[in-house]
Amino acid sequence: MTQAPLKVAVLASGRGSNLASLIAARDAGTLPVEFVLVGSDKASAGALRLAESAGIPTLALNPKSYPDRPSFDRALFDRIAASGAGLLVLAGFMRVIDAAVVAEWEGRAINIHPSLLPKYPGLHTHRRCLEAGDAEHGASVHYVTAELDGGPVVAQARIPVGAADTEATLAERLLAEEHKLLPAVVGAIASGRLRWSGKAMFDGRPLAAPLTLAQLS
Fold this sequence. Notes:
Layout: E1 6-11, H1 17-27, E2 33-40, H2 46-53, E3 58-60, H3 69-82, E4 87-90, H4 99-103, E5 109-113, H5 125-132, E6 136-143, E7 153-160, H6 167-191, E8 194-196, E9 200-202, E10 205-206, H7 213-216
Parallel strand pairs: 1-2, 1-4, 2-3, 4-5
Antiparallel strand pairs: 5-6, 6-7, 8-9, 9-10
Helix pairs in contact: 1-6
Function: Catalyzes the transfer of a formyl group from 10-formyltetrahydrofolate to 5-phospho-ribosyl-glycinamide (GAR), producing 5-phospho-ribosyl-N-formylglycinamide (FGAR) and tetrahydrofolate.
InterPro entries: Formyl_transf_N (IPR002376), Formyl_transf_N_sf (IPR036477), GART (IPR004607), GART_AS (IPR001555)
Catalytic activity: N(1)-(5-phospho-beta-D-ribosyl)glycinamide + (6R)-10-formyltetrahydrofolate = N(2)-formyl-N(1)-(5-phospho-beta-D-ribosyl)glycinamide + (6S)-5,6,7,8-tetrahydrofolate + H(+)
């Protein structure tokens, strides 16, 4: 009996390059998922156009149409739940989500962040990395909790920082790694290798350290 593909919803606020990497992996047959919804807080987001061209249902809600953040988050996440998604992927969704709403998705929502968490939660991660003189930079995928970029980290990709690197070059090089890391993590969840049981589990054992791309392959 063939297992039904994992139903995935994605939230994005921008151009959707990480979403594009997920769609490409699905189309290549390496990511056994069904995308049931792509949502955004910006009707102009490129991610929505990508989803439309791929035949994925889309949703754009305007936060200004709601009296407060919890009301917006509740409306958005009610629509995600109605899509039947078993996994929610935040791929460049630039909003802090209400704690009570997030709590209902414990272990079923992941986020990709452009830093080696716990370093540099929040914005301007490439600039902060350069200003600190770090020799290494990277991206992290973590389970979403109420704490901004503070949930359990499950996987990381690392790149060296060169003497000539700028914010732009660092961002460009790291994005190429993000485009490999996120599909690999979603694939591990879809296959059951990575799962949540009150904590992150990989191949049946508690995850002791963030996974690498090599471990996920």
